[in-house]
Design brief:
By secondary structure, the chain is α/β, with parallel strands linked by helices. The chain is built from 8 helices and 7 strands.
Length: about 180
């Protein structure tokens, strides 16, 4: 069974990752969710475990699993998909900052990486975010760009998470090569 690591960072659109996980599971993929510390404020580990049938990882060093979660997770993975990805997690990835399980997992995987950003339009347009994205692209990381529209805070512009079906299709294409 094809293994997908589904990274979820702390965006209001994190709830959409539940529908994304369901699409993958329904299609026969094995999904292993990794939530950042703040993502659990939007989506619970129990919800992700129920939807995927797999453990939900939230900490780098969990007592009930092997001590090196990022190493265990990467084994046999066909894709690391981060949806939604905040400016924070994109910045961590681009600068090799490994201070949580998701950023550490990013540094340890050898499989393709696909990122679907979601953030305030001003953040999406900020030069630091643009540079981080270009740096990651130069390393072979792929992106599903956000959509234009109103975001949770009421601002309008590019920053809305891409449609779940689009992210799913792009992820399947990346896995198939």
């Amino acid at each position: 069974m094809t293994k997908i690591i589904l990274g979820i960072s702390s965006s209001i659109s994190a709830y959409k990752a539940c529908d994304l996980a369901r699409l993958f599971v329904k299609a026969g993929y094995s999904v292993f969710p990794v939530l950042t510390e703040n993502a659990v404020r939007f989506v619970t580990p129990l919800t992700m475990e129920t939807l995927t049938g797999n453990p939900c990882y939230t900490k780098s060093f969990a007592q009930d699993r092997r001590a090196m979660g990022h190493i265990e997770l990467k084994e046999g993975a066909s894709l690391l998909l981060v949806a939604p990805a905040t400016a924070n997690i994109i910045g961590k990835f681009a600068h090799g900052i490994a201070d949580d399980l998701l950023s550490t997992t990013f540094l340890s995987v050898s499989c393709p990486v696909l990122i679907a950003p979601a953030m305030n339009p001003a953040m999406w347009a900020h030069p630091a975010v643009r540079e981080n994205i270009e740096r990651l692209k130069s390393w072979g990381v792929r992106f599903v760009d956000p959509l234009e529209g109103e975001v949770a805070c009421g601002d309008t512009g590019y920053g809305r998470l891409a449609e779940i079906e689009t992210i799913y299709r792009v992820a399947v294409d990346v896995i198939k090569g």
